[in-house]
Amino acid sequence: MTAHANSLNDSRSMPKTSDGQIAEQLFQHYHQKLLEMPQVLELLRSQGIDEARILQKYMGYSDRSLNKVLPCARTALGGLVRGRLQAMQLLRRSGHEAFAGCVVEPCFDLNGVVCSACGVRFRRQASRARPSMVFWYRAGIYYAPFEFLLAKMGGHYA
Question: pTM of the entire structure?
Fold first, then answer.
């Protein structure tokens, strides 16, 4: 974790925190959740992705727990954090995570800032018509194509 790891809950540092740092903290949360979920790790192993690759690619899992770690939406800090996540389209207006239920693989730019991500839902819910893959790109100009290991497994390329 970087020095900005706690700023999602720190009212003093949030105004100085860049969108890239906020996105990084979100993906840190997802990465930590994946490492705590043996059933998802086993699912990835069955797909040919070992723990070394998970650590190298900084993969994570969105287990829908983000709302529990974010400040309450009714507070100034909670409104600020959630508003910035919504502006980056990482959080929907409803408050739900864009990558809910996905194994997530972020990509980083040359400065080490998260600039894109691919999420894959391995388990489909019959009651909801949701895409099995979710792609997110932070605004900017990118000089190289993104290569997501998860997207290649699904036969898709970004």
Answer: 0.81
